[in-house]
Amino acid sequence: MLNIILFGKPGAGKGTQAEYIKNTFNLIHISTGDLFRKNIEKKTSLGLMAKSFIDNGELVPDQITIDMLKNEVIKNKKANGFIFDGFPRTLSQAEVLDLFLKSLKMNLTATISLDVEDSVLEDRLIKRGKTSGRLDDQNIEKIRNRFEEYNKKTSPLISYYKSLNKFHSIRGTGTIEDIRNELNNLINQLKLDD
Ligand code: UDP
Ligand code: MG
Hints:
Layout: E1 2-7, H1 14-25, E2 28-31, H2 32-41, H3 45-55, H4 62-75, E3 81-85, H5 91-103, E4 110-115, H6 118-132, H7 140-154, H8 156-163, E5 167-171, H9 176-193
Parallel strand pairs: 1-3, 1-4, 2-3, 4-5
Helix pairs in contact: 1-9, 2-3, 4-5, 6-7
The structure holds uridine-5'-diphosphate and magnesium ion.
Uridine-5'-diphosphate binds near residues 57, 58, 59 and 87.
């Protein structure tokens, strides 16, 4: 099985690249952000719980996010593997994910970070906000709050996965195609090492 976490700040290109990887390697793509947005659109109770956090650029509490993620994995237990996009975002989410995968006799292959500097990310998010309709992309204060959440709560995952020897990073700037090729090469290498 190939189980990959795509890691990076808001706007780093995780969703875009996940679309390619999932087709190339026949994986299930789980974006917790997309799942929340679908639930918000359908006005489910999960969506109602998550909405205010998301609109303000804050993380949704761990337990809500973890329960949703577990459900999604279990629904697809027979998959070739998974791309986790935007999850985990806190240390406790990462620890739960490890235990959960182990309980299913699954294993995390690697975490791959897409590295992009904040000024480029701000431009990308503002641009996306003009077409996506996402409130959290339309306001610079909210965007900066998401970076702060990342710095405080998500960036500790870098040393966590480094200590497990599972952290890799590639540059997230350049053409979409160049980045896709870099990712493909890296994942093919990881498959060989496995
Ligand atoms: N979010 C969260 N936990 C997740 C995924 C998303 O709390 O596991 C929330 C959080 O408020 C975040 C927003 O959803 O700012 C958008 O996340 P998404 O991954 O879709 O967008 P990105 O930050 O990658 O632009
Ligand atoms: Mg995304």
